[in-house]
Amino acid sequence: MVNLCSLTAEQVVEGVKNNHFSAVEYISQILERIEKIESQINAFTIVDANGALKKALSIDKKIRDGEDEKKIGSLAGVAVGIKDNICTKGLKTTCASKILEDYVSPYDATVVKKLKESGAIIVGKLNLDEFAMGSTTEFSRYGATHNPWNINYVAGGSSGGSAASVAALECTVSIGSDTGGSVRCPASFCSVVGLKPTYGRVSRFGLISYANSLEQIGPMGKTVADTVMVMNSIAGMDDNDQTTLNNGAPKYTTQSKRNIRIGLVKELVEGIEPEVSKCIYSAMDVFSKSDCKCEETSMKSVEFALASYYTIAMAEASSNLARYDNIRYGFESNPDSYEWNAYFAKIRSNFGEEVKRRIITGTYVLSSEYYGKYYLKAQKVRTMLKQELSALYKIYDILIAPTMPVLPFKFGEKIDDPLKMYMIDIDTVVANLTGIPAISVPAGFSKGLPIGLQIMADELQEQTLFETASLFESTANVQRSPKL
Ligand code: GLN
């Protein structure tokens, strides 16, 4: 029998609907794969084998009963993993933090609800840096996720579990969240496709906030087409999230068009690891050979992007994480025997080092004395970036850059130096600060380690993004799965 784990979401739906195999057969292979490989990868915080099998049975029954296509769903049978900062009814949502270690959400996030309605099968929750703060998944309470291409290397973060599970064939597609690159970074490090949609295109209802003005939920998959399928399920307006855009989400496709005008942002390639920059310049050639107009361009204000991002992200984090006081939710303890401040301090000592660092720095930049000097300035940079981008998008349909300035690296290399860790987000944060959509697609390898190409379009131009990404995917033909 064919290895059903290596199929794309498109192939799974096709196979299940046409009775080439049952959803139960496919899910059983996925669960076996997880059983076999998970001890090496550590992509999951929780695997819901029973729930997944039950849902597979119900999909098979619907198909046997000849139910309407719509009721069976556009993602019928597809195994999806959910980053563990997105609420799932009946399954824990821990944010890989001690502070939420027993938290079970009473409701499903809108994306989870929509995926279930589309017939997708939730196989489990996926590992992340605590509260999505990090770029390697090393800050998880459950231990780091390992890169399926070389298990001695980081998988990227913060949605490391989401990317590694897809690359290691433990899930067919997955969901991550991207505040400053957390979908695209691990997608790049694990050689899968990962999309951060336009701000407001996908509901954030049920995503546990880290920095809500920057973040979006986004899909990951083996192919561009798979991320398109997931977007067609999850995109759109939601009454529960007032920041969702009220124009209807179009049905996206992968049909690739030629003659795309592409600009490579030179400031985002300067000073990066030579192997990565070489690969990005050859991506330029791939486009030029496909009849696209591709040239270098400049975006001066990216110089300030990283500082602006970390100022705003930490400010918002300090406010969003103030709710974890163990009173409204948390683990058991006895507040009555403490003085209030002592109790609060005791409870909040359960956050990890990196989360604490950000809460403290965020509180500082918001304090009345430093607000103007840091926070306000950071917001001004955001406006500058937006203005510069809108001028560029009058000339180009698409901007490209590396997703990450470095190759995946070994565990422990950057964990003790916060600035070193923050610096590797230089190429991804522009899209979050400005709200534009951006996708990472596999672009090649160096020393057996993956490199991702980042493709960025103007606000709401996901369709152009998908067309460009699939043109690149079909022309560049990069290897998909590691041999594990
Ligand atoms: N690495 C970035 C940070 O730590 C991005 C994280 C994310 O996108 N959630 O803030």
Work out the number of β strands.
Answer: 13
Query: Which homologous superfamily in CATH is the superfamily?
Result: Amidase signature (AS) domain
Number of domains in the coordinates? 1
Name of the CATH class: Alpha Beta
Major sheet characteristics: 11 strands, mixed
Low-confidence stretches: none
Characterize the structure shown.
It is built from 16 helices and 13 strands. With 484 residues, it is an alpha/beta fold. The protein has one domain: Amidase signature (AS) enzymes (Alpha-Beta Complex). Strands 1-3-2-6-8-7-12-13-11-9-10 form an eleven-stranded mixed beta sheet, sandwiched between helices. A two-stranded antiparallel sheet has the order 4-5. Strand 2 (79-83), helix 5 (110-117) and strand 3 form a beta-alpha-beta unit. Helix 6 (160-167) packs parallel to helix 7 and helix 10 (305-320) packs across helix 13 (371-395). The radius of gyration is 21 Å and the shape is globular. Bound molecules: glutamine.
Task: Give a brief description.
The chain is of the alpha/beta class and 484 residues long. It contains 16 helices and 13 strands. The site of glutamine (GLN) has 13 residues, from loops.
Please tag this protein with its features.
484 residues; alpha/beta; Amidase signature (AS) enzymes; 11-stranded mixed sheet; binds glutamine
Write the layout of secondary structure elements.
Blueprint: H1 9-17, H2 23-41, E1 44-47, H3 49-64, H4 69-72, E2 79-83, H5 110-117, E3 121-126, E4 146-147, E5 150-154, H6 160-167, E6 173-178, H7 184-190, E7 193-196, E8 216-221, H8 224-234, E9 261-265, H9 274-289, E10 293-297, H10 305-320, H11 340-348, H12 353-366, H13 371-395, E11 398-402, H14 418-423, H15 429-434, E12 438-446, E13 449-457, H16 462-476
Parallel strand pairs: 2-3, 2-6, 9-10, 9-11
Antiparallel strand pairs: 1-3, 4-5, 6-8, 7-8, 7-12, 11-13, 12-13
Helix pairs in contact: 2-3, 6-7, 10-12, 10-13
Bound molecules: glutamine.
Glutamine binds near residues 132, 133, 158 and 178.
